[in-house]
Specification:
Blueprint (H helix, E strand, L loop, with lengths): L1 H14 L6 E2 H4 E3 L5 E10 L9 H13 L16 E9 L8 E8 L10 E8 L5 E8 L5 E4 L5 E4 L4 E10 L12 E6 L4 H15 L4 E3 L4 E5 L4 H12 L2 E2 L7 E5 L4 E4 L4 E2 L2 E4 L2 E8 L2 E3 L10 E3 L2 E8 L3 E4 L5 H11 L3 H14 L2 E2 L1 E4 L1
Helix pairs in contact: 1-5
Organism: Marinobacter nauticus (Marinobacter hydrocarbonoclasticus)
GO cellular component, one term: outer membrane-bounded periplasmic space
GO biological process, one term: bacterial-type flagellum-dependent cell motility
């Protein structure tokens, strides 16, 4: 039955193309299909005197020498200027197989000045469970560089203590995926929304038949799927290309107080309100004056401070918002007043406190 549905839908998908809709793959991710983070600790060698002098670097170097049958005498400090201790991180994608290669990022954890020209020695990369999933090694590509003079002056471009190794790790262990388990495939929406979840269910059932999909909540939608892996792959390829008209987002105003960025959502409205916002400017000017003593007074020349303080208040224009003011009207009103981003933030916060802003105000 599933195979017939796949064949029928493949034909209808060529003839029907909804307008102004998003593909399911752009709205949701398949449950269980995820990346995994890997991390390791190793040594970078071959540096041009830009290594670190951290105690753990010497300890790691001693341990490595012991593995090669070389024992350093106790109390001897190698002073390794060409070696740096680093952390190695990588992302293991879903369905990655043994023998495939990964890009890795190498970062200094000591006081190394630069990793340029260095070579990472064989480093095991472990997952959150402590198991080794990949082995890393190779020559670093460092985008930054630095230079320093004898007088202490220095210049640094980008970050020379971090480098990349394309295809620098080889996968040794595979992560078991729950993709082929059970009789259903579950999609998790990137943004939880009850309306979008309902529309996804309706779109799938409208193409594949009734009761093929059902929603658990505002995030998860399960679809009945074949157990055979090859059929399941074809079935999922069809599902992720179904086009759905997502619901409009809730009314939000986002303010970034550090950069002055203000984003007003499409559905933001303002209840009737009158607003005025003025600026008070205080100017302090120091005018030192030289005071000469009387020639017969035998005094000393002195400097007398002359401070002038001026307070000016720019005239503020008042503007009024009518009932259910739209986004376009808000932008026009702000532009007419010529308010700066900081002033707009203060106005929006005051509107929210007054209960006139019919939206969620988010300050980041």
């Amino acid at each position: 039955m599933i195979r017939k549905l796949i064949a029928v839908f493949a034909l209808t998908a060529l003839c029907v193309a909804p307008v102004m809709a998003d593909r399911l793959k752009d709205l949701a991710k398949v449950k269980g299909v995820r990346n995994n983070q890997l991390i390791g600790y190793g040594l970078v060698v071959g540096l041009d005197g830009t290594g670190d002098k951290a105690p753990f670097t010497n300890q790691t170097f001693r341990n490595m020498m012991n593995q090669f049958g070389i024992t350093l005498p106790d109390g001897v400090n190698p002073n390794l200027a060409n070696v740096a201790a680093v952390t190695v991180s990588a992302t293991l994608p879903a369905f990655a197989k043994a023998g495939q290669e990964l890009d890795i990022t190498v970062s200094s954890i000591g006081n190394a000045d630069s990793l340029r020209g260095g070579t990472l020695l064989m480093t095991p990369l472990k997952g959150a469970d402590g198991q080794v999933y990949a082995m890393a090694q190779g020559s670093l590509v460092v985008g930054g560089f630095g230079a320093q003079g004898q007088d202490g002056s220095r210049i640094t471009v980008n970050v020379p203590s971090v480098g990349r190794i394309p295809n620098g790790a080889t996968i040794e262990r595979e992560v078991e995926s729950p993709f082929n388990r059970g009789d259903t495939i579950t999609f998790n929406l990137l943004r939880s929304d009850f309306t979008t979840a309902r529309r996804v269910v309706e779109a799938i059932n409208g193409r594949l038949g009734p009761d093929m999909a059902y929603a658990h909540d505002a995030t998860s939608i399960s679809v009945r799927a074949p157990r055979d892996p090859s059929q399941r792959v074809s079935f999922l390829s069809i599902l992720e290309n179904i086009e759905v008209d997502p619901a409009q987002e809730a009314a939000r105003v986002v303010i970034n107080s550090r950069t002055g960025t203000i984003v007003v959502g499409q559905n933001v409205k303002v209840s009737p309100a009158a607003i005025t916002h003025g600026n008070l400017t205080v100017t302090i000017q120091e005018n030192p004056e030289v005071v000469q003593p009387n020639p017969l007074a035998q005094g000393d020349t002195a400097v007398q401070q002359n401070t002038q303080i001026a307070v000016t208040e720019d005239p503020a224009r008042m503007f009024q918002f009518g009932p259910a003011t739209t986004l376009n009207e808000i932008v026009q009103a702000v532009n007419q007043v010529g308010a700066a981003p900081g002033d707009v933030m203060a106005v929006l916060e005051a509107l929210k406190q007054a209960g006139a802003l019919r939206a969620e105000l988010i300050v980041i």
